[in-house]
Amino acid sequence: MAMWLATGGPKNVIDQAALRVHLDDYIDTQITSGGVRRLLIIPPDHTRLNSMAGPITAYLWDRLHDRLHIDVMPALGTHVPMKQHQCERMFGTSIPFERILPHRWRDDLKALGELPASFLGELSGGKLVQPMQVAINKQLFEGNYDLIVSVGQVVPHEVIGLANYTKNIMIGVGGKDTIDKSHFLGAVCGMESIMGRVDTPVRRALNTAFDRYVRPALKIHFLLTVIGPDEKFNNILRGLYFGDDDATFESAGDLSRKVNFDVFDKPLDRCVVYLDPEEFHTTWLGNKAVYRTRMAMADRGELIILAPALSGFGEDKQIDKLIRRHGYLGTDHTLKAIQADPELAGNLSAAAHLIHGTSEGRFKITYCPGQEVTKQEIESVGFGYRPYADAAKQYDPAKLTTGWHTDRDGKPFYYIANPALGLWASRQRLG
Q1: pLDDT digits (tens, 9 = 90+) for 325-359
Q2: What structural domains and CATH numbers belong to the chain?
Q3: Residue 405: helix, strand or coil by DSSP?
Q4: Nearest of 312, 306, 321 to residue 374 by alpha carbon
Q5: What is the DSSP secondary structure assignment for residue 403, as one 8-state letter?
Q6: Is-contact 17 26, C-beta < 8 A?
Q7: What is the pTM of this model?
Q8: Residue among 220, 240, 165, 256 at smallest CA distance from 5
Q9: Strands 297-307 and 364-369
Q10: How far is Cα 374 from Cα 274, in angstroms, rounded to an integer?
Q11: Which of 19, 43, 196, 249 is deepest in the core (most CB within 10 A)?
Q12: Among 275, 236, 296, which residue's Cα sits nearest to residue 373?
């Protein structure tokens, strides 16, 4: 195992020309000279538009599709398959839509084995003592690929600590039980002790599953990006890391902690987060506004979530139903619901999401949707409600940039243009 490229720094700028040079070198040394004839690329989906994975995937396609067979399988996890216009927004128009394969997390699977209950019990301190069935999309095995290239961004993540690397395979194209148990493991271990960290219980579980069942059977490379803001909060490619080992991820993770983690001297009394209509249509995704700011929020503060394209709660109909049934009412409520509702107990990723998406009563969460979700629906799951049109008059996304602003009452508020790009915390929460 090896790391072929590690370039980056908090002030580093990798422009398009430099990116192409690095990709050309990777193509020449690892694909062309390696005799690859069938290639599978696994990028994230359109909910990671800012990851640079889309342009990287398109560049690999453009350079190689006339020389070898290429398929693209977005790492959907539990997300719905991408529509053609979303694929074109993410990857451009050169990749034929029929070559972009959907991942169906409940069905398209090859069972590989399991992690024993004792191991999950050890990782969770006895809070989750169940086996984890390990399965990933069967196409990775049946497609006869000479090489699989996983492309994605390393960024703070609420379930695993830092996104990508083995998560892109084990969760992104993984099966239901792997997704359920890993998410619930993160929830019971405590999200605030996990976010932004390289080594976490969930990372250990997924790395172990990958090393035991996937690495010996498939040749997988990882092309990892780190995106950080400049002084005007434009997204800049700060780091590139290519390899097939833990060191590749750990190096990217070290840089992500430096460029994607904002620490405040005092907690935020008021925070406003905008959910881009192209990325966020459900609270399953939109609650990144909650996950990524909860360590920054003051007790009795207010988190205001501008969600103009919100159309529901879950990406999956069954999970949407469970969110509507149980709501975001805190850890104790959710744990009791698991005992009382076999359907929720059988969908632990949904239970984990309900835990992650609550403030535990510590601060107020106000969702501001457009016209597709009603006040009754929002309040029924435990959130405060305000119409988007009304909130946008006070907090206009077209006029605000990430950072501090003064409200009409003369008090400060902090605005976040995209919660998926960082992690925010107060020093007192960091201990």
Answers
A1: 999 999 999 999 999 999 999 999 899 999 999 99
A2: 3-259 (3.40.50.11440), 262-430 (3.90.226.30)
A3: strand
A4: 312
A5: E
A6: no
A7: 0.87
A8: 240
A9: parallel
A10: 19
A11: 43
A12: 275
